[in-house]
Amino acid sequence: MQLNKQVEFHKTLGDPTRLKIIYLLSEGPLHVGAVAGKLGLTAPTISHHLSRLKDCNLVYSRREKNTVYYHINTKVLMHHGKVLQQFAEGTKGEERNMDQRVLEKQKVMNAFIGKDGKVSQLPAQQKKRLYLLEHWVEGLEIGRKYEEKEINAYIKQFHDDYATVRREFIIHQFMFRENSIYERNPKEMWGSVKS
């Protein structure tokens, strides 16, 4: 658990308008105009609040034709709720699990990544494969849209079979693809490595 993320989460939700937006989005995705209409505020005001919520990964957006719809990120809300629950219960189990996860991930990196930084063969075991995919996708910029050829070139730095890795990025929700344009998903959406 990172304290600064918890603080930023609670600061962001400390605004009544943002809480109302979260409540509205909990009933389903909406575009800026719909949220503005329901709350009786201007579209630029709603865009500002949605931008703040997006910065904390509390919402994410998806374009459908010419309209951008905002969705609530329930995984993030549940994560922060669990942290509060742990405070109430006085447990630190998540921290121990994270420490163990970091050690496991490092072992996989050491075992599969050669001195040249490349992987000759993807691990057969899904847990190990997810660690590698996660490691690679962390090098991509959040919010940047990549053309397919850019993603291919990026992957080829680490593994020759860029088509398989690119496909796995989508399957395990590390990335979102639309019309051959790729974008990194928030971490909370990634296919998690089961302990």
From TrEMBL:
Q: Does the keyword Nucleotide-binding apply?
A: no
Output the Pfam families linked to this UniProt entry: DUF2087, HTH_5
Listed transmembrane segments:
none
Can you tell which superkingdom this protein's organism belongs to?
Bacteria
Q: Which PROSITE patterns match?
A: HTH_ARSR_2
Arranged from A to Z, the UniProt key words for this protein are:
DNA-binding, Transcription, Transcription regulation
Please name the GO terms that the record assigns under molecular function: DNA binding; DNA-binding transcription factor activity
Q: Where does the HTH arsR-type domain lie?
A: 1-95
Q: Note the PANTHER family from the entry.
A: TRANSCRIPTIONAL REGULATOR, ARSR FAMILY, TRANSCRIPTIONAL REPRESSOR SDPR
The entry's protein name is: ArsR family transcriptional regulator
